[in-house]
Specification:
Layout (H helix, E strand, L loop, with lengths): L1 E6 L29 E6 L2 E5 L5 H8 L6 E3 L5 H4 L16 E5 L1 H10 L15 E5 L4 E3 L2 E10 L2 E8 L2 E4 L7 H6 L5 E5 L12 H11 L3 E5 L7 H5 L6 E3 L5 E3 L3
Parallel strand pairs: 3-4, 4-5, 5-6, 10-11, 11-12, 12-13
Antiparallel strand pairs: 1-2, 1-14, 2-3, 7-8, 8-9, 9-10
């Protein structure tokens, strides 16, 4: 299984519009962060988690040629509003693209992208099939375990794939979900900035959650312009690193 970070930034991306801070003006490419999305390649198939507004740019940059399924964490704009661009992956396909999400996100997709469900031509509208992501499933032999977490007061989903787990927008992990993360060897967890935030872990809170879960390696994502890559990594434990756009990892499922 190969994972690739298509985007590691927060809702505004980095550089942020109309900002002249040191990180936004940085020439370090690891400080250039598109909105959060993850590519998982397994058994010749491609699965993407979330469709941010940057999905077209991410797909072209990655050279992504196929897409077999989507998973959604939640329905906020920075994780959903690039969904229309997936139509380019289904122009030669007869079957709609499977989209796995919780009930709230499926409802939002049906409203925001209502035109996708009216039978339009594949060149004009995305061909989508909505599926429940709130119960475990298996895709091409890859186990997919939803991990319910809280994003402020909003219930959202992280996902576990065997020994790997991905949890982005998160401010609390309930005990039952902590149990679901037990034994994970590689964890991706959101860490917005150093200062506290009402709906996201900051770095200190993310490190505390990582210490409780106990993975061998952890990567921080959903990063704001408050965090310079090099300076932040210098303060992290050896087994915790900042993810960056384009980073790829080979993992055992």
């Amino acid at each position: 299984m190969r994972i690739t970070f298509l985007g590691t930034g927060t809702s505004s991306g980095v550089p942020r519009i109309a900002c002249d801070c040191d990180v936004c003006r940085s020439t370090d490419p690891r400080n250039h962060r598109l909105r959060c999305s993850l590519l998982i390649e397994h058994d010749g198939r491609a699965l993407v988690i979330d469709t941010p507004p940057d999905l077209r740019t991410q797909s072209l940059r990655q050279g992504l040629r196929r897409l077999d399924a989507l998973l959604f964490t939640h329905a906020h704009a920075d994780h959903l509003y690039g969904l229309d661009d997936v139509r380019c992956f289904r122009l030669e396909e007869r079957e709609p693209l499977p989209c796995y999400a919780d009930a709230r996100t499926r409802e939002r997709i049906a409203v925001v992208f209502d035109y996708a469900f009216r039978g339009g031509h594949p060149s004009s509208v995305p061909q989508l099939a909505l599926h429940d992501a709130e119960t475990p499933t298996t895709l091409w032999g890859l186990p997919v375990q939803p991990i319910p977490v809280l994003h402020g007061r909003l219930p959202v989903l992280g996902y576990r794939f065997g020994r790997f787990a991905y949890v982005t927008d998160c401010s609390a992990i309930p005990p039952a979900s902590m149990a679901l993360l037990g034994g994970v060897e590689v964890l991706v967890l959101g860490a917005l900035r150093h200062r506290e935030h009402p709906t996201h872990f900051n770095v200190e809170q993310a490190l505390a959650a990582i210490a409780t879960i106990g993975p061998r390696h952890a990567w921080l994502t959903h990063i704001a312009h408050d965090l310079d890559h090099e300076a932040t990594e210098a303060c992290l434990p050896a087994q915790v690193r900042l993810a960056y756009d384009g980073l790829s990892l080979e993992l055992e499922p």
